[in-house]
Write a structure and sequence with these properties.
Blueprint lengths: L3 E4 L5 H12 L3 E6 L2 H9 L3 E4 L5 H14 L4 E4 L14 H29 L2 E6 L12 H20 L5 E8 L6 H12 L7 H15 L5 H13 L6 E4 L1 H12 L2 H12 L2
Parallel strand pairs: 1-2, 1-4, 2-3, 4-5, 5-6, 6-7
Length: 271
């Protein structure tokens, strides 16, 4: 009998690639998305498509109920999320709150609603989509990084807490990923910046830096392969870093003095 996976944010990018990878491996796929057009595309593939805006507690509860009826899923891929970019000073409280609702509160709310079914099945897996920015921050990504730091901190506790019931929890940490994720985040940031803000100079230098970093971006399919591997390996790992650039940046940040890292980033954005 085929097992069932629930993938959130499956309308595009990593979520869609992960759902496809599980389907090829013979799994039943339950996929969520926010907009109807994406849901129609997911349903056309023969998947169970469930609407979910993970920022909303009521929507998360309803999605969990429907997923349990369709599955229940033995693997949850908590992929839905977005990046709130911009200088920390320019991000108001409502945007901070939305970032944490989507990237932290929602994923754990969904996981806790599925845990009783995983216990009843004798175990399960939770894959938490994090980022290399879950262990190192960067200018203009402070709010997003803060949400991923919080996700990682809570997951480190959660992973040990649910281990007695054979529930494995893994953080997947890619660097830059090809697709429109960053483009959408930059567009949202630009829409929120007021004309004449004091960070105009840094903003002009941001695009060339992003272009250089994007040369090392990994594909959604590569991330999806890691997700499938971590969801099915006999002994789940705590973390899985995806891509050479992510590994290199984490090693460099661990070895280099913080003052040196700050100086390099300052020079990149202040030329």
């Amino acid at each position: 009998m085929a097992k069932t996976v629930l993938v959130t944010g499956a309308g595009r990018g990593i979520g869609l690639a992960a759902a496809e990878a599980f389907e090829r491996a013979g799994w039943n796929v339950v996929a969520t998305a926010r907009d109807q057009a994406a849901l129609d595309r997911l349903a056309a593939r023969g998947w169970t498509a469930i609407p979910l805006d993970i920022e909303q507690a009521s929507a998360t509860a309803e999605a969990a109920r429907r997923a349990l009826e369709a599955g229940p899923p033995s693997v949850l891929v908590n992929n839905a999320g977005y990046a709130e970019l911009g200088p920390v000073e320019t991000v108001d409280r409502s945007r901070w709150r939305r970032q944490f609702e989507t990237n932290v509160f929602g994923p754990f709310d969904l996981a806790r609603r599925l845990l009783p079914a995983m216990r009843a099945m004798g175990g399960g897996r939770v894959i938490q989509m994090s980022s290399a920015l879950g262990r190192q921050s960067a200018p203009w990504a402070g709010v997003y990084a803060a949400s991923k730091f919080a996700l990682e901190a809570a997951t480190d506790a959660f992973r040990v807490e649910v281990r007695p019931w054979n529930v494995g929890v893994t953080l997947v940490e890619p660097g830059f990923v090809r697709g429109d994720f960053v483009d959408a985040a930059v567009a949202g940031m630009d829409a929120s910046l007021e004309p004449g803000n004091p960070y105009d100079r840094s903003r002009r230098n941001l695009d060339p830096w992003l272009a250089r970093v994007h040369r090392f971006a990994v594909t959604p399919e590569r991330v999806a392969a890691v997700i499938l591997r971590e969801a099915t390996r006999p002994r789940p790992r705590a973390r899985a870093v995806v891509g050479f650039a992510a590994r290199a940046s984490l090693v460099a940040r661990a070895l280099a003095p913080g003052s040196l890292v700050d100086l390099v980033m300052h020079r990149v954005l202040s030329r």
